[in-house]
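Predict the structure of MftR C-terminal domain-containing protein.
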Amino acid sequence: MEIIAESPRPGAQRLARRARWADLIRAEADAAEADAAVARGEAAPRDYRPAATAFIGSVNGLTHDWTAGWTDATLDEVVDEPVRLLLGMLRPEDWRPATRWDGARAGRRGCGSARRA
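Done. Here is the predicted structure for MftR C-terminal domain-containing protein.
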């Protein structure tokens, strides 16, 4: 664990910003669409505040390390990783895709084909 030393005012501002982001993520998780995702088994019914706080910290850490040159990744990789984390925290622990990717569901012919049906 790493604790960053800072004076009280910036520390309070950082914590307030983190709380607002966590509240936003939690509010989205509590929205009507989230209820539908829970009903479909795509999301876990739980309090997302601890997960949202952990997510914010991981995004901050990744962004810091990437901009400092400590993480060898493309911008796309830096963006994709938090998306994977976010989806992982939303889904139930036992979640598995119903089937393998079916290109027809997305209006495509065959797996990996970029042509539209």
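The chain has one domain: 9-92.
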